[in-house]
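User: Hi! I'm working on a homework problem where we have to compare a predicted structure to a textbook description. Could you give me the structure for the chain below?
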Amino acid sequence: MGLHEAVLNGDLEGVRQLLKQDASVNEVDSSGNTPLLLAVCVKEDEIYNSIVAELIQAGADVNIYNKGFTPLYNAVFYKRAESVEMLLKAGAWLRPAYRNELHLIAEIGGSNILSLILNDKRCTPDIINCSDEEGRTALHIAAQFCHKNCLRMLIEHGGDLAVLNDEKESVADIIFEQIVNPEKFIRNILDGSIVMEQTDKYRSVYNVDFSVLAPKNCERQMEVISQMLVSASEEEKIEVLQHPLIELYLVLKWSRICYFFYFWISIYFIFSVSMGVYVSLMIQNFRNEVLTKVIKYVLILTSTGLLGHAILQGILIRRYYFQRYEIWMNLICTSLSLTVAVVADDVIRDTQATPDWVLHITSIAVLLAWIELMLLIGRLPSLGYYALMFSAVLQNVVKVMLAFLCLLIGFTLSFSIQFHTFEQFGDPWRALVKTTVMMMGEFEFSDLFAESTSDPPFLPATSRIIFLFFIILTSIVLMNLMVGVAVSDIQELHRRGRAKKLEKQAEFLCQLEKVISSKHLNSKFIPAVIRNVLVRRSFIHTKYEVKTCATFQRSHNIPRRIIDSIASIGKVRKQISEDE
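Assistant: Happy to help. Predicted structure tokens:
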């Protein structure tokens, strides 16, 4: 046991003498430790490194494993980079356990040691993404402890941002929860995926790597972006989605899958038109049996398909699914439409008139159908911007209206008292509607203040003063405020509108990809040939070349703005690498 004692005491010369005397370098003590495992007890780094070097040269087993510890794990734990490098060169590798050295580095930090392991040829993305006993990968832990350098290196070497731990949290979830300014961190990671190459003196090619967004082992290529959409706040989504790498990725993905969207929007258009036509025929008692039945069956078929698609999405996309107002609109609209198509015709025939409940639900269903169609148009690259600009302006107007809701209620109650003899102010609801209309400029001053000898002498003066205040505060101040808020910052409105359009596109792509790759849609329901075509059609390669010439832009139909942004990032990164 002399070699064990010499190692424990940090006696470098004693270790050398014993090794020259052919001491057994792999002999274990009563605790199962070899001298190389005991070297961790040496406090001085220089002596520790020297002893490890001597033991390795003498043939020590660098992968010896005892009670969960290996020489490499010990060296990593105490951040002894020189010994880590020696052990790796000697053949040491990550310990055979759930929690390995990568998880340890991710917790305690140490990008220099992590670089040594990641640059080893044996370190593959499968090893980087292996999970510990809690289902966490090294990326989960690095994000949780805010070790940005380690996290960035793991991602650059194939780390998967979408992998889930046992608590169903992805790496993207933890990044947006724990790291300060996560949008800047993500943008820096995406910048690193753009590399400029000089092909000749005048031409450059920009190599774009989408592996960060579409890891090799991930079944769905939109999963990372899907996790970002769920985890990020509105401001963070605006910053991340408008990165040129993500914009280019969505453009390419959209070009592969847009035919499915056009088919989907066509179905919705047929549904909306058939709903409107069918209800009109019922209300007007138009008795063309053939036409009515055709439209009825078209309505039933389309509404059933849309309702089934919404339910299927709910099964596949459980997380935050029912927090999206579009989903509720879709479910309510298709359910009401299906109800009308199935029972309305028979009810009208029996009663010889259209019941009120049919009129109510059909009017709601028709309105929701066309609003939903407008929202679908909002996902189109060309027309979508205007629809989403409308949405952005609407949000600003609603915020202003909510802020001044008390003012509106106050004037409503005041007018309902002052003008209680008028039918328009006969009850609170009609008074509220009338006051809101008056805000738009429909004052009807001559009707409200017609000369009447029956009025008390104080009432006209009081009502005129209140009415004057109403004109000043609402029609002049409030309405101009809403207009000013809506259009005050056109550039910001444009930025948010573009980000919202990208978000809607990404949501559609995520949903469609989940439906296509779902195990629920097996060959029993859909032929394998069709399924394979759908999957193959939605797939894009993770390596892509971007050129700045006009011919490339025309042939690939990529916006010039995206190409210029990618070129700018590539040039900056190349300049930085040359300066270093």
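For your comparison, note the following. Strands lie at 194-198, 204-209, 543-547. The chain has a mean pLDDT of 81. Good luck with the assignment!
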